[in-house]
Write a structure and sequence with these properties.
Layout: E1 4-13, E2 16-26, E3 31-35, H1 42-50, E4 57-62, E5 65-66, E6 77-80, H2 92-102, H3 107-120, H4 136-148, E7 154-158, H5 166-183, E8 186-191, H6 194-200, E9 203-208, E10 211-216, H7 218-223, H8 228-233, E11 238-246, E12 250-255, E13 258-263, E14 272-277, E15 283-285, E16 292-301, E17 305-312, E18 315-322, E19 334-338, E20 345-348
Parallel strand pairs: 3-8, 3-9, 6-7, 7-8
Antiparallel strand pairs: 1-2, 1-4, 4-5, 9-10, 11-12, 11-14, 12-13, 14-20, 15-19, 16-17, 16-19, 17-18
Helix pairs in contact: 2-3, 2-4
Length: 365
């Protein structure tokens, strides 16, 4: 039995569904992220787990116990809010130890836990400071320490890094994961940042319009998206519309005036599809030697790579090339564009993916 389980969990306000039939199983010690755009229901899901929002329908169990209707303070969960919600009149020590005082722990035990968790988040030298005297990253660590010090059964993180600048946010992603691994606390994080979700999660739950669209480990989610939405929301993707001419393990797909052969992905002859190809899977080759030819219309230097917009017979494609020292292509130059056919994903032209979308084992849904 999984440690935390959501079974057909739904939330509606009147006739408007916010979360519909959410099914999720989280193992003990696992780090899971709820990923999706604003309004997709991910924060509502987290709040239902925390007990702040009442479940309309469904069941939530934690370590075998039904907590669907339990009070928030009886669930034994640690929560890090987007705003951190620190007490401005308390020092770092006061903020972190507050939860222990509410649990009426002895002074000795409070001191032992406080010292351990402050050392864990590298704040032991700032114990006497107030929140106003701390940087954004330090305040984030205080909020994390306050949630961890009570030794929660599950740690809930609501956009915990959204208030940090880009460089600090990237640093804190990895620090957060390191701390979670040291402590071993089961963790669920809400984020709209796909890089953040993929870099630190064991599994990612992608939500769209209140429903789960795919649950997978980060690499499979990126390499085997099951819908058009996922292919473009989780990273960048070139989507080329076509129609399946013949199916089978290898399908022939008509793309306007040209035909390509790809892994079928569950499509049948006559289906309208999109071919999804990640920009970094494309490469430039001499004219006439690739899948098709094109003209470089724009190029952008991104430091570690060059990003090109290329006009072709099947539409505009994005090509990402590593900055490996070779001279970049000039704008308005003609070049062939190639890609390995086994890296092309076939997606249904509608909102749903195919039943056999992946060549890897089926993802939980």
């Amino acid at each position: 039995m999984s440690f935390l389980t959501l079974t057909d969990v739904s939330k509606s306000y009147g006739s408007a569904p916010v979360v519909a039939d959410m099914n999720l199983s989280v193992e003990k010690g696992e780090f899971v992220s709820l990923l999706g755009p604003s309004g997709c229901g991910k924060t509502t899901t987290l709040q239902m787990i925390a007990g702040f929002v009442e479940v309309t329908r469904g069941r939530i169990t934690l370590d075998g116990l039904d907590i669907t209707r339990a009070r928030p303070n009886s669930r034994g969960l640690g929560i890090v809010f987007q705003s951190y919600a620190l007490f401005p009149h308390m020092t770092v020590s006061g903020n972190v130890s507050f939860g222990l005082e509410m649990r009426r722990m002895t002074k000795t035990e409070r001191r032992e836990r406080l010292d351990a968790v402050l050392a864990l988040v590298h704040l032991d030298h700032l114990a006497a400071r107030y929140p106003r005297e701390l940087s954004g990253g330090q305040r984030q660590r205080v909020a994390l320490a306050r949630a961890l010090v009570i030794q929660p059964r599950v740690l809930l993180l609501d956009e915990p890094l959204s208030n940090l600048d880009a460089k600090l946010r990237e640093e804190m992603q990895f620090e957060l994961r390191q701390i979670q691994r040291k402590v071993g606390t089961t963790s669920i994080m809400v984020t709209h940042d796909q890089t953040e979700a993929m870099s630190i999660s064991d599994r990612v739950v992608v939500m769209e319009a209140g429903r789960v669209t795919q649950i997978d480990d980060p690499q499979r989610l990126y390499e085997y998206p099951q819908t058009r939405f996922i292919s473009t929301f989780v990273g960048k993707a070139n989507l080329i519309r076509g129609r399946v001419r013949s199916a089978g393990p290898r399908a022939r797909v008509d793309l306007g005036s040209m035909t390509v052969e790809v892994d079928a992905g569950g499509a049948a002859a006559g289906d309208e599809v999109f071919l999804s190809i990640r920009p970094e899977k494309l490469s430039f080759v001499p004219l006439g030697q690739g899948q098709l030819d094109g003209v470089v219309r724009e190029r952008f230097f991104l430091g570690s790579q060059w990003l090109y917009h290329v006009t072709t017979a099947v539409g505009e494609l994005i090509v990402a090339c590593p900055n490996d020292g070779r001279a970049p292509l000039e704008e308005d130059c003609h070049s062939g564009v190639d890609w390995p056919s086994h890296l092309v994903r076939v997606l249904a032209a509608g909102t749903a993916g195919f039943d056999a979308q992946q060549s890897t084992p089926a993802a939980e849904s």
